[in-house]
Design a protein that fits this description.
The complex is a heterodimer.
Chain A lengths: L1 H9 L11 E12 L2 E12 L3 E5 L6 H7 L10 E9 L2 E2 L7 H7 E4 L10 H12 L4 H14 L3 H4 L12 H13 L5 E5 L7 H14 L4 E5 L3 H7 L2 E6 L2 E7 H6 L4 H7 L5
Parallel strand pairs in A: 3-8, 3-9, 6-7, 7-8
Antiparallel strand pairs in A: 1-2, 1-4, 4-5, 9-10
Helix pairs in contact in A: 4-5, 4-7, 5-7, 7-8
Chain B lengths: L1 H5 L2 H31 L6 E6 L4 E11 L7 E6 L3 H4 L3 E5 L3 E5 L4 E6 L5 E10 L2 E5 L1 H49 L6 H30 L2 E6 L5 E5 L3 E5 L6 H17 L2 E2 L4 E2 L2 H32 L4 H13 L4 H24 L14 H26 L2 H9 L4 H30 L2 H6 L26 H10 L4 H37 L5
Antiparallel strand pairs in B: 1-2, 1-5, 2-3, 3-4, 6-7, 6-11, 7-8, 7-9, 9-10, 12-13
Helix pairs in contact in B: 2-15, 4-5, 7-10, 7-12, 8-10, 9-10, 10-12, 11-12, 12-15, 14-15
The chains are: A alpha/beta, B alpha+beta.
């Protein structure tokens, strides 16, 4: 196990990390967009049922790293990846593995809410339908469960069959979360999920994340250091494609081990 | 002045003015067509004008204009009808020459199956040599009593001609082709040939039977009506030929409105008569709508699939850009070019090959190797495919990339994403493209003239004989009908109002089809509500 060793060596102040069982393990991961290297030799482990945050200035590779975990980078031309990623113990680059199966286990919520131009019900039922759920009663059960889990049920229960695009921005983002958890993934990736929302909607999503971590392993990319400090259990700081520091959130924010981390969280650059 | 020009005011006036000019032109166009087209069916009063030299002219006033070269004088154009008696339907009369104008109540206008209108007073009704009614009033009652029976007889004759004899003819043709098929295979005798020969003999007997029946029916119609026209000329007209009799001068506005409605209905529901200058345009309406529908069925899947490949699957680059430019430019190619292509490729090559492979027994008479509704629709599909591709592509480009990513991130494959998310979202754009395509297709005439439109089609492309839909048949089209009636007709004056009425109908059909597609699109939009956000 290279990952945890490295974490201990870089963040000695996080002894608890080894005790947590890892859900996602990243080993010596490098990524190139054409000739440009975007991620450099990253090794880390994401613990199960915890919220892990990636912070860092724009262009540092935090979204790229997140999108490696469900292989969304496959969709971009000219991407080259080295190193291994294991989710729940399986190598996600195994040629025998179906990428759609991986994405069913690793859900994703995007920066800009992107509900389908369909009804609220159809949005939440989309994933289960892809998985082959046909029965109306089953679908209704799944939709209600996931909308409740995303704290949206009470607001939309009377208009499930109206267009999802009629919802407010915060509601749309919670619908996207409901849609992602309707297929009951193991991991939920969130790529700056609140950057387009107002503070109240942001607070609701943050509450939701804390509630959801009992059932899901959450990885979040955020621009907002306060958000990372508020909601996450572990934080990784990336700079120029390199994982500078990774450890328990409180530790990283109060007592950073690296000079660059300190400069970033105190606002000297970024 | 400078301040005025700096305020931007003149530019606003310029833009507003341009819009006003455009609107005026469209309103003028529609107004002209409405005025000329709608007036066609109104039963105008019949004027009896006595000229200073004693000549009497009876007819409907259809036009009035200034006499060229003479100040302050007008002349009127009278529709006198009775082409068989006078040689022409219309005559010009100088108003200065008219000594007396009268509107007689007993002047009858008779619509008949041949020779256009007959205008005059009804003198008598005869049955063979025997006079059954004499005098205007009695004859009129007798004629009106006999009209329903005459119409029923006409319908019966028509039914026997079209349905019974049509069926026999169809069966005869099938039997002849079956024989020919056997002959091509080298079988010229044997039980099969014998059976077919017997069948043909039986069919011939049935045909003769129907022909006798027809002759008997025709022989039953011996009644005639005697009509006196201007100058004491008399016309004895078989009652069987009378379609309608009316007395416009005796009709009130209500009766005229009823007659008007009946006229409009007859126009849209009847077959044409007298080389299209009389009667209705039903086959042309049918042909136009059917051709546009076949074209839509062909062009939509093709255009949508092509657009999907261009936007969703193809690697964007120089080559795809070139293809896109080429597709866009295809929309600007003159339509007659597509017509030539349709003849050369579809009719001669594809149709000719089909004939040789599947219909060799009918040769040298071509089945698909000649113009037909399928080839016309295909030609128009090629003509309109750029419109559908461009509209669909724009719709695809307008779908946010995040929508596709969201679907992929849920574990959907690319195909599932395309079918379940992208396709429903792009449907309104597809319909926009289809609306534009239909509007263009319904209005095209030039390529159709080369690929299957005819002046008079003997049968509709849909009938009761298997396979019911006859895509090889030639068809009639409103656009071509306008051209044919207006410019190829032997009786241009009589045909002119018909041109406007047909134009109005064509406009109406295009508008109706568009409204249908627009309402469909709006319903889809509401369902997928892309308007919000």
């Amino acid at each position: 196990m290279v990952g945890p060793t490295r974490i201990v060596s870089e963040a000695p102040a996080a002894p608890g990390l080894l005790l947590e069982s890892p859900m996602v393990e990243i080993e010596r991961l490098s990524l190139w967009y054409g000739a440009k290297q975007a991620l450099r030799d990253i090794t880390m482990a994401v613990p199960k049922h915890r919220i892990t945050a990636y912070i860092g200035p724009s262009g540092c590779g935090k979204s790229t790293l997140l999108r490696c975990l469900n292989r969304m980078n496959d969709l971009i031309d000219g991407v080259r990846i080295e190193g291994t990623i294991r989710v729940g113990g399986t190598d996600i680059h195994d040629p025998g593995l179906d990428v759609t199966d991986l994405r069913k286990r690793v859900g994703m919520v995007f920066q800009k809410s992107n509900p389908f131009p369909k009804s609220i019900f159809e949005n939440a039922a989309y994933g289960p339908r892809i998985l082959g759920v046909r029965s109306r009663t089953d679908l209704e059960g799944i939709v209600e469960r996931s909308l409740r889990a995303a704290a949206l049920w009470d607001e939309v229960r009377d208009r499930l069959h109206e267009s999802a695009l009629g919802l407010s921005g915060g509601q749309q983002q919670r619908l996207c979360i409901a849609r992602a958890i309707a297929v009951e993934p193991d991991v939920l990736l969130m790529d700056e999920p609140c950057s387009a929302l107002d503070p109240i909607a942001t607070a609701r999503i943050e509450e939701l994340m804390v509630e959801l971590k009992a059932g899901y392993t959450i990885v979040i990319v955020t621009h907002n250091m306060q958000q990372a400090a508020r909601v996450s259990d572990y934080t990784g700081f990336l700079l120029l494609g390199e994982l500078v520091e990774y450890g328990v959130t409180r530790q990283l924010f109060t007592n950073p081990g690296d000079r660059r981390t300190e400069d970033y969280i105190t606002g000297r650059f970024g | 002045m400078r301040a005025f020009s700096r305020s931007g005011e003149p530019f606003i006036w310029l833009t507003g003015g341009a819009l006003a000019v455009a609107l005026l032109m469209v309103a003028g166009l529609v107004g002209l067509i409405l005025w000329n087209g709608l007036g066609f069916f109104w039963p105008a009063d019949v004027l009896r004008a006595t000229l200073r030299d004693g000549t009497v002219l009876t007819g409907q006033v259809v036009d009035r204009e200034r006499v060229p070269g003479r100040e302050g004088e007008h002349r009127i154009k009278l529709k006198v009808g009775n082409r068989d008696l006078y040689g022409a339907d219309f005559t010009w009369v100088d108003e200065a020459q008219i000594a007396e104008r009268r509107y007689l109540l007993d002047v009858a206008v008779i619509e008949r199956t041949e020779w256009g209108l007959l205008i005059g007073t009804i003198q008598a009704v005869r049955e063979g040599d025997r006079t059954v009614a004499a005098g205007p009033e009695a004859s009129r009652r007798e004629l009106e009593r006999r009209l329903p029976a005459a119409a029923a007889l006409r319908r019966e004759i028509r039914r026997i001609e079209a349905d019974d004899i049509g069926d026999v003819n169809h069966a005869q043709e099938q039997a002849r082709l079956a024989l020919r098929r056997l002959e091509l295979r080298g079988t010229t005798s044997g039980p099969e040939v014998e059976a077919l020969r017997r069948e043909m003999a039986a069919l011939q007997a049935r045909y003769d039977e129907h022909a006798t029946q027809l002759a008997a029916l025709r022989g039953r119609a011996t009644a005639t009506v005697v009509v006196q026209a201007d100058g004491g000329k008399e016309k004895e007209l078989p009652v069987a030929q009378v379609l309608d009799v009316y007395f416009p001068n005796a009709m009130g506005p209500g009766a005229k409105a009823l007659h008007y409605a009946a006229g409009v209905w007859a126009f849209v529901s009847d077959d044409p008569r007298e080389s299209n200058t009389e009667g209705g345009v039903f086959p042309a309406i049918f042909g136009t709508v059917m051709m546009v529908m076949i074209m839509s069925v062909l062009v939509t899947p093709l255009g949508v699939l092509a657009a999907f490949y261009l936007r969703e699957y193809a690697r964007q680059g120089t080559f795809v850009s070139l293809v896109r430019i080429a597709v866009n430019n295809l929309a600007g190619v003159p339509s007659i070019v597509f017509g030539v292509f349709g003849v050369g490729f579809f009719i001669y090559f594809v149709g000719g090959t089909i004939d040789q492979l599947f219909f060799p027994e009918a040769l040298p008479t071509p089945t698909f190797g000649t113009g037909g509704i399928l080839w016309a629709s295909l030609t128009l599909a090629i003509l309109t495919i750029p419109v559908v591709i461009v509209a669909t592509e724009e719709g695809l480009a307008a779908i946010p990339g995040g929508t596709r990513e969201a679907s992929l991130a849920l574990g959907a494959t690319k195909l599932e994403t395309t079918l379940r998310v992208v396709l429903p979202a792009v449907l309104p754009s597809v319909l926009t493209g289809l609306i534009l395509a239909m509007a263009r297709a319904a209005g095209e005439v030039a390529p159709l003239m080369l690929t299957g439109v005819v002046k008079l089609a003997p049968a509709l492309p849909v009938d009761g004989h298997w396979p019911f839909l006859h895509l090889d048949r030639k068809f009639m089209h409103l656009g071509f009908h306008i051209y044919d009636v207006g410019f190829q007709s032997p009786n241009v004056d009589a045909a002119r109002p018909m041109v406007f009425a047909t134009t109005l109908l064509l406009l109406l059909i295009v508008v109706l089809m568009n409204l249908f597609a627009v309402s469909l699109r709006n319903r889809l939009r509401r369902r997928y509500a892309t308007a919000a956000v």
